[in-house]
Every structure is written in structure tokens, then in C-alpha cells.
From TrEMBL:
Highest rank taxon of the organism: Bacteria
Name of the featured protein: YqaE/Pmp3 family membrane protein
A Pfam family: Pmp3
Family: Belongs to the UPF0057 (PMP3) family.
Glycosyltransferase is among the record's keywords: no
InterPro entries in UniProt: PMP3
Length: 52
């Protein structure tokens, strides 16, 4: 399941984070990072998925 989440994190970072932690601080932070730049959103999403 983590492989699917990582693939989603690369394509749509907030979706990958949502599947891992739901709607919370990390989800909203990831949306903000993705809006500022796609790459920071991807890095944060993969970090959240791997960390948990």
C-alpha cells in the first residue's frame, strides 16, 4: 500500500498525504507547499508517508 501512496504523492502530493494521515495539519501544510512549488509538496508527502 505504501508504494501506491508514494506514486500518488508524486502525481498529486495532497492525495498521498490524505490517504496516510487524513485531514489534519500535515494535509493542509502539504497543500500549502504544493501551491508554493510542486517539488516541496512532493518531498513533504513522501516524508510523511515514509515516516509513519
Amino acid at each position: 500500500m505504501d508504494v501506491l501512496r508514494i506514486l500518488l504523492a508524486i502525481l498529486l502530493p495532497p492525495v498521498g498525504v490524505f490517504l496516510q494521515v487524513g485531514i489534519g495539519l500535515h494535509f493542509w501544510l502539504n497543500i500549502l507547499l504544493t501551491l508554493f512549488g510542486y517539488i516541496p509538496g512532493i518531498i513533504h508527502a513522501i516524508w510523511v508517508i515514509i515516516r509513519k
